[in-house]
Amino acid sequence: MFIIDCPWCGARDQSEFSTHGEAHIVRPEDPETVDDTEWGQYVFYRNNVKGWYRERWMHAFGCRRWFNVLRNTASDAIATTYVPGAPRPSLPEDT
Amino acid sequence: MVKRARLPGALLIDQKQPITFTFEGKTYQGYAGDTIASALAGAGQWVLSRSFKYHRPRGILTMAGQDSNTLVQLLGMPNVLADKTLITDGLQVEAQNYTGSLMNDKEAEISKVARFLPVGFYYRAFFRPKGIRNRIWEPIIRAKAGLGKVDTRHRGGYYDKAYGHYDVVVAGGGLAGMSAAISAAQHGASVLLVDENPILGGAMNYARADIKGKRLRARCAQLRQTIAESANITVMTDTVCNAWYVDHWLAVIKGCRLHKVRAKQFILAAGSLEQPAIFHNNDLPGVMMGSAAQRLMNLYGILPGKNAVVLTGNDDGYGVALELREAGAQVQIIEMRDLALAQATLHDGCVAAGLRIHYGSAIYAAKADRNMHHINGVEFGKIAGKGTIAKEHQQISCDLICMSVGYTPTYQLALQAGGKLGYDDDTAIFSIENLPKGFHLAGSLNGVFATDDVQADGQRAAAQALDGLEITHSLAADFLPVMVQVNHPWPIFEHPDDKNFVDFDEDLMVKDIRNAVKEGYNELELVKRFSTVGMGPSQGRHAALNAARLVAEATDRQVRDVGVTTARPPFSRETLGVMGGRVFSPERLTPMHHRHAELGGHAMRVGAWWRPGHYGVGVDRVAEINSEVRNVRENVGLIDVSTLGGLEILGADAAQFLNRVYTFAYLKQPIGRARYLLMTNEAGTVIDDGVACRMAEDRFYITATSSGVDRVCRQMLWLNAQWHMDINIINVTAAYGGMNLAGPNARKVLQKLVSDEVDISAEGFPYMGLREFQVAGIPAIVFRVGFVGELGYEIHVPATAAEYVWDQVLAVGQEFGIQPFGLETQRVLRLEKGHFIVGQDTDAMSTAEEINMTWAITQKKPFFIGKRSIELRNRALSKRKKVGFRLPSGITSMPQESNLVLKNNKMTGFISSVWLSPTLNAVIGFAYCAREDAQIGNHITIKCDDGTLHQAEIISPHFYDPDNARQKL
Ligand SMILES: [Zn+2]
Q: CB–CB of B558/B552 below 8 Å?
């Protein structure tokens, strides 16, 4: 159980949050024009990294807002949290 | 019953309170505060258990709960630590792992000659073909691997959880930990100090640092006093900090309670574990750690031997010798170092006391009586080189061998946190690095051993913690401790007759480790898997260092390069009760909950909700459900639907938003009308459904499934976080109480509760109509839906008034034969009507096409979530299809949900819903079957739980009232 710094509420226990996988998955602008392979990539394929990972979280038992977390999947260290639309933070040096 | 005098001044026992207990059926007496092991030792019973493989007698090794020699059986509880568990009057204790009796174990004789379970046995056995392993080896392994017996009739105790939040948690209440706790608390930090012993003080309670032996006791008393007077230090003794997780989430266990503790800063001051030397018979009763002898004397008043030999490689061994001497024992010292290196405070004290010291020597073998119940002598000689002893040996008669040859830091929690253990092969000094932020070490974990330095190191750790808390302080954050070498680099001496144990738990000897390396397992992790070294109950606490030394030597490397095996939680044994215990699981009750209980509702758990499944005295569940079904069909029923998810979508873009999120069309939905909602995900799978009520141009009140509403709401919030449409999404599930009034008499009942101005006639309030009016004087949202297939009104009122409205509806409905009905009844009613339930009749692959719901998908709109995938999946249809089926009512075995649909003995689908319909007098249900078989009139084969096969006829899933005449009344 780690602590997540909600961009709106501040630091709270992980049990207040729900996680929803990789962040910055861009939905194809016009789904009708992409081929099936590209569409399948969008729907099903996600990176599964050991190390720093940008992922979506939601403060389910708090403000119920969505935000992004830059988390190390191996150590559970969290480098930063940021709101949707904010520029992507770069990966920490020690990767 | 043997009674022997105890030494005076024992810290933990009260000799005024005798306690009687039994061990192996024999009665013993100890005192309040005695552990099982100390009480037995006090009575001269040194054999406590038999070893794992060779059934050798074993006794006290650490007296600190850190070895498996002392594991005993209590009534209903196996593998209890005899050196930690206190005796109580009438306690019945049995030894473990023997055949015959503890003192005369038949298997001990066998294992003297037979080479049973050679090293690598398990590893090899489990690589054999599976059948051989299961049939031949498993029963043998199970019989041999048993330490203790589980009593399946045992009634567990009360286990619970608690939470704690502190600025600083200190694990370990010795000098370093006490010092750190005091320093942190003096600066205003809230501190939790955890120690596994009954009293604070750690080694100060039994070890000695000066010749007179008074210094540590005095200092300890003073620190204990300061802590007792500190308002912001919480002390938990008899408590173990068993695991570290990220951000200093600590599993702290005291008795039957797990404390989930969050620390802002964590100080590990858990001290060190004394390590054994390796020589022939180093495992037998009478051979113990020097610290174990000191604990026995100072904590329990037990003299562990009259003729003692202390094997030492550090100054602590001389403290042990002095203490034994003062307690009246004859003592000789076998010093592994030369005189020049041995000179220090306590050594000089022993010289002054006239104790005989054999310098530069080591033990070659311990001698024991024929039964090996206790050692009776020692054979030793000059050290000729690393691990070798010169040919000329001397003998000493003795009944005690104390080992003081070094320590390993109690590094487990630090390594769990990602710390890296370092080891200097020349000085045999450990170091721990790479700790996460806010994790500090204090005391001997830092390689600090001198008394004043240990106390200063506790202050230094507190300074670091205060820095982390951003509390200003004037504590010295840095100082240079005197480095003390406490470890002899090579206390391992092989013997041609083996029985020189590296791992006492697993009965592994020097040659076993060497053989593992010879087999090619040259990394420590591989040696561990192959030989099982460190896998026993004490998890390598006394085996890891010597095993690493042997692997390093055999592979011509340094110990620092071999390292230690990975440390994972838990640190020590944890009962299942502690992990299970009371679970905090939220439960939700509807506003009418208490009425259901009064009406005889049979509560069932649905997600977090408690709902009545049906009502009645409970004699015949099926009959009660069917009776409720009939009453809805013939008269009128009322069901609590408050658990149904409720969302409000407000704003100019509300209709546009629903159009994107659901498959149907909502832009032109008129105000005052309800419309079906079907939700698919991006993969085109059906994930939720409900009803959209258009309350205004810019306001929808929508329902979602009870279990799905949180997910649906989250997803909506996520989507609009990207789309930025002009809407608000509010989960109002708990704000409303809902009930569904259904049956041919429903209108008559409702009429009695509304004013005359409200037109609820078939024309004025038609099917799928939506109105807002007062019901029993309470403002309500009412809409007509036909989930159960009858004329029905869904009435949603403010939650606070829901029980009142429920009561009113039931009261005025009396004359029309109203009865409440439950969730199980509703499931039967909707099955008869042919309505599916998301999650019951769909799974993670179900498309609208498979479940015959394509009518709810609008292809005309340019975009909705799932559209692209639905088109794709429509081009290559799945192999299955959901159908309705019927079996004759006289069927002998009743099919159940999840029973398989078979074709040529292969599974093509399964039953998702089934019931013997009281309305249709036939078994009806939904099933998935092969698409090519899914035509009306075909037959599918269903396999029941009892293995019987039945031919079911595929019929239209609209079993009841296919023309929808009744719901449109
Ligand atoms: Zn928040």
A: yes
Hey, what CATH topology would domain B500-567 get? Arc Repressor Mutant, subunit A (1.10.10)
Q: Which protein residues have their CB within 5 A of the ion that is ligand 1?
A: A 6, 8-9, 59, 62-63
| Domain annotation covers residue A89 | no
pLDDT score at B53: 85
The model carries a pTM of 0.88
Do B627 and B621 touch, CB atoms closer than 8 A?
no
Shortest distance, CA A16 to any CA of chain B (angstroms): 13
Q: What pLDDT, on the 0 to 100 scale, is given for residue B142?
A: 57
Q: What's the CA gap between B168 and B109, in Å, rounded?
A: 54
Size of interface A-B (CB pairs under 8 A): 50
Residues in chain B where the model's pLDDT stays below 50: none
Query: Structural domain of residue A70, as residue ranges?
Result: 3-82
Q: Are B364 and B391 in contact (CB under 8 A)?
A: no
Which phi and psi (to 5°) does residue B421 adopt?
A: -90, 125
Q: What backbone torsions phi and psi does residue B551 show, to the nearest 5 degrees?
A: -65, -40
Does CATH place domain B877-969 in 3.50.50.60? no
**Å from B165 to nearest chain A CA?**
12
- Tell me which residue of B591, B623, B698, B714 sits closest to B661, measured CA to CA: B714
Token pair for residue B281? 């018979």
Name residues whose C-beta falls within 8 Å of residue A22's C-beta, 6 or more positions apart in sequence.
A46, A47, A53, A54, A55, A56
Q: Tell me: the pLDDT tens digits for B315-364?
A: 999 999 999 999 999 999 999 999 999 999 999 999 999 999 999 999 99
Q: What is the pLDDT of residue B634?
A: 98
Q: Which amino acid is at A70?
A: L
Q: Nearest CB to A66: which of B262, B710, B718? A: B718
Please state, in angstroms and rounded to a whole number, the distance separating the CA atoms of residues B910 and B908.
7
Written as six digits, the tokens of B145 are 């691997």
Query: Could you give the angle at the alpha carbon of B89 between the alpha carbons of B86 and B91, nearest 5°?
Result: 70
Is there a contact between B436 and A77 if contact means CB atoms under 8 Å apart?
yes
Assembly ipTM: 0.94
Is the Cβ pair A36, B872 closer than 8 Å? yes
Q: Is B185 helix (H, G, I), strand (E, B) or coil?
A: helix
* Tens of pLDDT, residues B413-449: 999 999 999 999 888 889 999 999 999 999 999 999 9
From B915's Cα to the closest Cα of chain A, the distance in A is 37
Place of tokens 């078979």: B902
Instruction: Using a CB–CB cutoff of 8 Å, tell me whether B165 touches chain A.
Output: no
Do the domains at B1-144 and B160-272+408-469 have one common CATH topology?
no
* Residue in chain B nearest A36 by alpha carbon: B872
Q: Which residues of A touch B647 (CB under 8 A)?
A: none
* Overall domain count for chain A: 1
User: In CATH terms, is domain B160-272+408-469 a member of 3.40.50.11720?
Assistant: no
User: Per CB distance under 8 Å, which residues of A are interface residues toward B?
Assistant: 1-3, 13, 18, 20, 31-32, 36, 39, 42-44, 56, 58, 60, 64-66, 75-77, 84
What residues of chain B, 422 to 481, have a C-beta less than 8 Å from chain A?
436
Residue ranges per structural domain of chain B: 1-144, 160-272+408-469, 276-405, 500-567, 877-969
| Contact yes or no for B955/B936 (Cβ under 8 A) | yes
CATH classification at residue A25: 3.30.2270.10
Which chain A residues are within 8 Å of B710, Cβ to Cβ?
60
Alpha carbon distance B443, B945 (integer Å): 64
Q: What is the pLDDT of residue B4?
A: 72
The number of beta carbons lying within 10 Å of the beta carbon of residue B476 is: 10
d(CA B237, CA B196): 6
Q: List the single residue in A with minimal CA-CA distance to B243.
A: A1
Query: Nearest-CA residue of chain B relative to A64?
Result: B714
Does residue A95 carry a pLDDT above 50?
no
